[in-house]
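R.M. (postdoc): so does anyone remember the format we settled on? I'll just put the structure tokens first.
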């Protein structure tokens, strides 16, 4: 079935959409304080991936072919994505606007988009700039230099990840304290 590399890229192309949408859905769940749900979905993703590989190779003795690996890979990412979409839809359906408070859901979503759009635009431009740099180094130097540059670029992200691990929990806790009086309106009473 996969005679060339182009067809493999074609079959794996849904992962571009899935992997692009997954952090956004996890951020929405994190905003509603559904940390356990995110953890359960992550465990489900890896159980499906590893369980699919183990069951195919050791239980059913199916020979290794690339099509089977593609199906296992896509399904292990797609099923948690669908479940997180369903959970978010259920959360949004349960949210009710309270007329006594001057804080409607429309105002809340407007603030989210006003704050989130510049951040997502910054993230997009950073990712594009990183890829442009890799392509530029690849055009003017050999493959060994490109490999070294790509590895060093990956290592240069570690300080940012360390800093993020310190300020992200503080950001979450301070934003939780900030909306304490509006929490009942935004976060549903009964969680999954």
């Amino acid at each position: 079935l996969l005679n060339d590399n182009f067809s493999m890229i074609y079959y794996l192309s849904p992962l571009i959409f899935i992997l692009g949408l997954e952090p956004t859905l996890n951020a929405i769940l994190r905003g509603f304080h559904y940390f356990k749900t995110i953890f359960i979905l992550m465990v489900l993703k890896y159980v499906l991936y590893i369980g699919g590989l183990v069951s195919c190779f050791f239980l059913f003795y199916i020979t290794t072919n690339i099509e089977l690996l593609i199906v296992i890979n896509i399904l292990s990412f797609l099923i948690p994505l669908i479940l997180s979409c369903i959970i978010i839809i259920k959360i949004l359906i349960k949210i009710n606007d309270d007329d006594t408070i001057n804080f409607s859901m429309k105002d809340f979503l407007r603030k989210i988009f006003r704050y989130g759009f510049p951040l997502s635009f910054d993230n997009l431009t950073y990712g594009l700039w990183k890829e442009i740099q890799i392509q530029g180094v690849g055009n003017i130097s050999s493959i060994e230099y490109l490999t070294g540059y790509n590895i060093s670029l990956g290592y240069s992200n570690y300080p940012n990840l360390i800093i993020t691990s310190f300020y992200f929990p503080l950001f979450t806790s301070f934003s939780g304290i900030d909306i304490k009086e509006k929490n009942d309106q935004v976060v549903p009473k009964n969680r999954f």
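R.M.: ...and that's the designed sequence above, right after the tokens. Also worth knowing: The mean pLDDT is 76. The two ends are 42 Å apart (CA to CA).
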